[in-house]
From TrEMBL:
<feature type="transmembrane region" description="Helical">
    <location>
        <begin position="394"/>
        <end position="416"/>
    </location>
</feature>
<feature type="transmembrane region" description="Helical">
    <location>
        <begin position="706"/>
        <end position="730"/>
    </location>
</feature>
<feature type="transmembrane region" description="Helical">
    <location>
        <begin position="428"/>
        <end position="451"/>
    </location>
</feature>
<keyword id="KW-0812">Transmembrane</keyword>
<feature type="transmembrane region" description="Helical">
    <location>
        <begin position="303"/>
        <end position="325"/>
    </location>
</feature>
<feature type="transmembrane region" description="Helical">
    <location>
        <begin position="345"/>
        <end position="367"/>
    </location>
</feature>
<feature type="transmembrane region" description="Helical">
    <location>
        <begin position="472"/>
        <end position="496"/>
    </location>
</feature>
<keyword id="KW-1133">Transmembrane helix</keyword>
<feature type="transmembrane region" description="Helical">
    <location>
        <begin position="248"/>
        <end position="274"/>
    </location>
</feature>
<feature type="domain" description="ABC3 transporter permease C-terminal">
    <location>
        <begin position="710"/>
        <end position="823"/>
    </location>
</feature>
<protein>
    <submittedName>
        <fullName>ABC transporter permease</fullName>
    </submittedName>
</protein>
<feature type="transmembrane region" description="Helical">
    <location>
        <begin position="795"/>
        <end position="819"/>
    </location>
</feature>
<keyword id="KW-1003">Cell membrane</keyword>
<dbReference type="InterPro" id="IPR003838">
    <property type="entry name" value="ABC3_permease_C"/>
</dbReference>
<dbReference type="InterPro" id="IPR038766">
    <property type="entry name" value="Membrane_comp_ABC_pdt"/>
</dbReference>
<keyword id="KW-0472">Membrane</keyword>
<feature type="transmembrane region" description="Helical">
    <location>
        <begin position="751"/>
        <end position="775"/>
    </location>
</feature>
């Protein structure tokens, strides 16, 4: 049967090519997503500035939080990544030096610096050996001196630097360069760097006299400290690599899983249609004695040959697509540039397995109906479509509709705020799969419902198109299903994203009472804050710090691995720069180790004013704070409010990056920003108005939206190709039918008009069903987030989706019909299919 399968493929190039394209694109996309997942799992970021040190000792960038209430006696915990750099005690250097095999220990600190208006990083000159840097001019820095990168200044010059909120003038002692890093770096003396870093160490570079791995195993570092060797040293230099790797794993897993489902349906739809178009041929084989098993083996053999060829072609292009996608994510800032793209043999193996599974399942489903008919009914079965609702389709439809309904109920009854998208998203695929399972029947029903409008606008031609659609509902549904997938996935995901962005921006806008912002890349010092507060026209000013906190006591059942968003504010300006209503206590008491809890969090923790709460801040530091206020915040957008000094000290920067400013009554934004610019002249800061604050928040949301659009766009592009693929194949195989119609009196123009009406019907049915699929996810989500059944977003998005579906359906129906009708009618009938 394999030999026969190979021969039939040679004679069925159209169906072969269509199935090959569907399987090939599915394998390419799954392989690319697998490469992104492998990259995220590895999170390889080879060291650059720390490349010369064989061992790097750094803080462990994760903590373990209880998964269950400790009061219940359960000890299960989960690892949680920390968003801020974990710093070390300088005294740890003595313990490291005492380890046998250690020759030199170099303390490394990092300080944000503003040099000549651009951002750089400051380090101690001692740590230049960790790269290593070499002097190209001048000498090592002394008191009041610095070493700068090439092109910034020359030895002997005097420059102004801002570091850790302090602006000072330094003499340039020398110029240094390194081959392994392009990061602008300024070197201070060890004492100056230690003072600017607040007497904390980022990491230690350890040089050894023996094997680094052996020496690293001997180090007695204590809890929360790790010794890194090889490429793992890059994790100390780029702690954000692990967090971005986790995000990349989640992103690729969701996109890859969605791709597998889409590929399964597209391949099944294409292969089923190709098999149905050969029912006469397969029926004849049954009539001459071919057994059902032999027929299934032949169809399966054909599918396996196509799948293997598709996998072979995809093996080369999958990594290329993965690398291109990774480049786009890097350009968008989702993944640090230091992370390397890695794709080994495993992603392609998974893609090959998923593709073969889709092909085999599709082949078995396609061959099942034809192989089960009796030989005496073979020819009759080949000419008339009968049963379309099989037990398998019925079970799949019931399960998917049940699952989609359950997710919708959970979205409305349980979910709150943006997290509602976590259940709304999967509901799209469940609704789509359910509709696809019963698409022949739904297609026939939709054709009946559209009978009146179609006849009204297209007359007899429309009647014939409707008759063709109803009698060949199974064939037509093969073209409708990809349109349903494309319209449903595109509409749902785009409007879920735009609604979520709009709600987030609206919430931020309503909470923001500030009229201007003073941004300080080198950090906000007390002197700068005081100058801003004393500027004419300023009613209040507050530092503004964002980070994350993890509640440890009491146990927070609602807290996930992302922790609780945290916001640091200055007590005297907090109430006037943010508008969260205070339900109890006062945000003016945010001084020292205190916190203001949102009402929902306070209720979850059973805490009120003056109660203690123990939590870990973004760098893992544990602190017990006193609740001084309970504030009302929108559900889903809650933030813990801390004193800015407390929260900023446990961020990577170490200081607040900006100051929010509220104008006095009667002072407009233009006058306020002008006053602030004049008051901060000479300081390394920038002044912006309220619009710049809103734009900055919107741009942060746009990064996540861009990533979502990129991955969804890739999948939709695949389904669009599948639409064209399926329609071209379905229309091109109707040459005999078109020939008979022309012999019966139809002109070529009338046949083409009929084909265009059929294409329009396919587009309308696909768009309507796709809209229903999208609504199954959008409506519950919008009810939770906005209280309306309609999403927030431009109507043009939906119009564009509908227009693209219509153009594709018409183009893919008319062009093959035009080609098929070029042959003389008698010749077309004689040649048959």
């Amino acid at each position: 049967m394999l030999r026969l399968a190979l021969r039939t493929l040679r004679m069925r190039k159209g169906g072969f090519l269509a199935t090959f394209v569907a399987a090939f694109l599915g394998a390419v996309i799954v392989s690319a997503c697998g490469g992104l997942m492998e990259t995220g799992i590895r999170a390889d970021a080879p060291p650059q500035r720390l490349a010369a040190a064989p061992i790097v000792v750094a803080g462990q960038q994760e903590i373990r939080l209880p998964k269950h209430d400790p009061a219940e006696g359960k000890l299960k915990t989960e690892a949680v990544a920390l968003p801020e750099r974990v710093r070390l005690d300088p005294a740890l250097a003595d313990r490291i030096r005492a380890t046998p095999g250690v020759s030199i220990v170099v303390s490394d600190v990092t300080v944000p610096v503003v040099l000549a208006g651009s951002q750089a990083l400051g380090h101690a000159w001692d740590s230049a050996a960790l790269t290593p840097y070499t002097l190209t001019a001048g000498h090592a820095p002394g008191d009041g001196e610095v070493v700068v990168p090439a092109g910034q200044a020359k030895p002997g010059d005097t420059i102004q630097l801002a570091a850790h909120g302090i602006t000072a003038r330094y003499r340039v002692a020398g110029v240094a360069a390194a081959r392994t890093t392009t990061e602008p770096t300024v070197f201070f003396t060890a004492a100056e760097a230690e003072r600017l870093a607040g007497n904390q160490v980022d990491d230690f570079g350890v040089f050894t006299t023996g094997d680094p791995s052996t020496v690293a195993a001997r180090l007695n570092l204590g809890d929360g400290v790790v010794a890194l060797t090889g490429d793992d040293r890059g994790r100390a230099e780029f702690p954000q690599a692990d967090a971005s790797g986790t995000d990349l794993v989640v992103l690729s897993a969701v996109s890859g899983g969605l791709s597998v489902l889409v590929a399964l349906f597209v391949v099944a739809s294409t292969l089923t249609l190709a098999t149905q178009q050969r029912r006469r041929e397969l029926a004849l084989l049954r009539a001459i004695g071919t057994t059902p098993r032999q027929l299934r083996r032949m169809v399966l053999g054909e599918a396996l040959v196509i799948g293997v060829l598709a996998i072979g072609a995809a093996a080369a292009l999958g990594p290329l697509l993965g690398r291109w996608l990774f480049g786009r994510l890097t350009d968008a800032g989702v993944v640090p540039e230091a992370v390397l793209f890695r794709q080994g043999w495993l992603p392609m193996t998974v893609a090959a397995g998923a593709t073969l599974l889709a092909v085999v399942v599709a082949a078995l489903v396609a061959a099942r109906r034809v192989s089960r008919i009796r030989p005496t009914e073979a020819l009759a079965e080949a000419t008339v479509e009968r049963r379309w609702l099989t037990p398998l389709r019925f079970v799949v439809a019931v399960l998917c509709f049940g699952g989609g309904t359950a997710l919708s109920i959970v979205t409305i009854a349980v979910m709150t705020g943006p997290v509602a998208a976590s259940t709304a998203g999967p509901a799209v695929m469940l609704w789509a799969i359910g509709v696809a399972a019963i698409s022949p029947g739904v297609t026939k029903l939709m054709a009946i419902l559209l009978h009146g409008p179609v006849r009204l606008f297209s007359g007899v031609i429309g009647w014939l198109a409707l008759a063709n659609t109803r009698t060949a509902a199974t064939r037509v549904s093969g073209a409708v299903t990809p349109i349903v997938l494309a319209v449903g996935i595109a509409t749902a995901n785009i409007y879920l994203q735009t609604t979520q962005q709009a709600v987030s921006q609206q919430t931020f806008t309503e909470d923001l009472r500030a009229d201007a912002v003073v941004a300080a890349p080198a950090g906000v010092s007390p002197e700068l804050l005081q100058r801003v507060q004393q500027t004419p026209g300023v009613a209040a000013a507050s530092e503004y710090v964002t980070s994350t906190a993890f509640v440890t006591t009491p146990y927070d059942e609602s807290q996930d691995e992302d922790g609780q968003p945290a916001l640091g504010l200055t007590a005297e300006g907090a109430a006037q720069t943010t508008s969260a209503p205070v339900a109890a206590g006062s945000v003016g008491a945010l001084i020292g180790d205190t916190v203001a809890l949102p009402e929902t969090v306070a209720a979850e923790l059973h805490r009120s004013v003056d109660d203690p709460v123990t939590l870990r801040l973004g760098d893992g530091h544990e602190v017990t704070v006193r609740v001084v206020a309970v504030v009302a915040q929108p559900v889903g957008f809650e933030k813990l409010l801390f004193p800015a000094a407390l929260l900023a000290a446990h961020t990577t920067a170490g200081l607040s990056p900006q100051v929010l400013v509220r104008a006095e009554p009667g002072v407009d934004q233009a006058r306020l920003t002008a006053s602030l610019a004049e008051a901060t002249a000479g300081w390394p800061v920038s002044v912006g108005d309220r619009a710049s604050l809103l734009a900055a928040h919107a741009s942060g949301d746009e990064v996540g939206a861009w990533v979502n659009y990129l991955m969804i766009g890739m999948i939709i592009g695949y389904t669009v190709i599948a639409v064209v693929n399926t329609l071209v194949m379905a229309t091109a195989r109707r040459r005999r039918e078109f020939g008979l119609q022309r012999l019966g009196g139809f002109t070529r123009t009338q046949v083409l008009r009929m084909a265009s009406v059929e294409g329009g019907l396919i587009a309308v049915i696909g768009v309507l069903l796709g809209t229903v699929v999208a609504a199954g996810a959008i409506v519950p989500f919008c009810l939770v987030t906005t209280g309306s059944v309609l999403p927030i977003g431009p109507v043009g998005v939906y119009v564009a989706v509908v227009a693209i579906a219509a153009v594709l359906a018409l183009f893919a129906s008319l062009v093959p019909a035009w080609v098929a009708t070029r042959t003389r009618p008698v010749t077309a009938v004689a040649l048959g299919e």
